[in-house]
Amino acid sequence: MNQRAAHLSNKIARKAQKAADIWAKNYWHHFPFGGSPRADRQAYLTLWEKAKAVSYPDIEAFETQKGFRIDPQWFHDLALHTQIVVKDSVLCYQHGRVLYAALREYAESRKKQWDQDKIPQGQRMLTILETGTARGFSAVCMARALADADMCGKIITLDLLPHDVRMYWNCIDDHEGTKTRAELLAPWKTLVDAYILFIENDSRIGIRRTATGRIHFAFLDGAHTYEDIMIEFDMVRQRQEEGDVIVFDDYNPVLFPGIIKGVDEGCTRWGYRKDVFGDRQGRSYVIACKNAVS
Ligand SMILES: C[S@@+](CC[C@H](N)C(=O)[O-])C[C@H]1O[C@@H](n2cnc3c(N)ncnc32)[C@H](O)[C@@H]1O
Fold it and tell me: Measured between alpha carbons, how far is residue 153 from residues 115, 149, 167, 169, 231 in Å?
């Protein structure tokens, strides 16, 4: 193909890509959680009170083992706006506590290593990758962990949902009208601006096209299928080193058999040791830690 033909072909391909992009975004940009509030303010507050009243001894034990616990009042307040939704299944947002404690522990171990290796302060920084931003709850919990650890870092989080399009989010804020995710997260703006980079993209494409360097810590919580888990795990593990971590939620054989298969297969194939624990309410989490490459 001569250069003129190649240029023309590229122009057509880019136009087609733009059209496909608009088409693919259409669903996510037009009220994916419904065209009106799902419940009134009081209904969300009642759901919140009920969710807050449940105790989770296994999560507490996990926090004790790691040596870190997220500020409960701050945590529940964030959850009210980003986790309390009207849905058929039980509301549970304990993964925020798990992520916070696991990331704080990881940050401390990195600091020790950096001290040993005499790494200059300006080069001490963590890169975190998340798939499945949703309303931003887990990303903000991880941002809080970095801030409390006095750690520089960037949390790159991907979702098909846009950050700057107004919609109803099926949450308590809906009684104030439509909001963008940025507006929903305005009370946590300082943390958000300091640490979080929101990417609107399919994780399968987005991770590959984002040059992150080393991914120290990841939370893979996007599409819960075997295929997606394997693609994401594969892309992340190539950018990880010994001791780096991937957290998985919803490790449940009945509801999400694809996650079980993908996590088990990926850990064996790519050399991760797996710490699985449940919260006795039916939800299980996995902390996968990369072994030394032999
Ligand atoms: C379980 S929710 C994530 C919850 C969130 N981590 C939190 O703690 O609030 C899953 C999210 O993954 C997103 N998602 C599903 N498939 C995806 C894909 N292929 N790429 C990017 N995001 C995806 C959905 O839009 C949804 O917001």
Answer: 17, 11, 30, 28, 24
Longest dimension (CA), the chain: 69
For the segment 22-37, what is each residue's pLDDT rounded down to a tens digit?
A: 998 999 999 999 999 9
**What are 288's strand-pairing partners?**
246, 274
- Contact by Cβ (8 Å): 288, 252: no
Return the sign of the alpha-carbon dihedral for residues 183, 185, 188, 191: negative
Query: What does the DSSP 8-state code read for residue 31?
Result: -
**Among 78, 93, 133, which is best to mutate for testing ligand 1, by the most ligand atoms less than 8 A from CB?**
133
Give the SS3 label for residue 281.
Answer: coil
- Which of 221, 225, 232, 246 for a ligand 1 pocket mutation test, highest count of atoms within 8 Å of Cβ? 221
Other CB atoms within 10 Å distance of the CB of residue 250? 16
The model's pLDDT over 149-198, given as tens digits with 9 standing for 90+, comes to: 999 999 999 999 999 999 999 999 999 999 999 999 999 999 999 999 99
3-state SS assignment for residue 269: helix
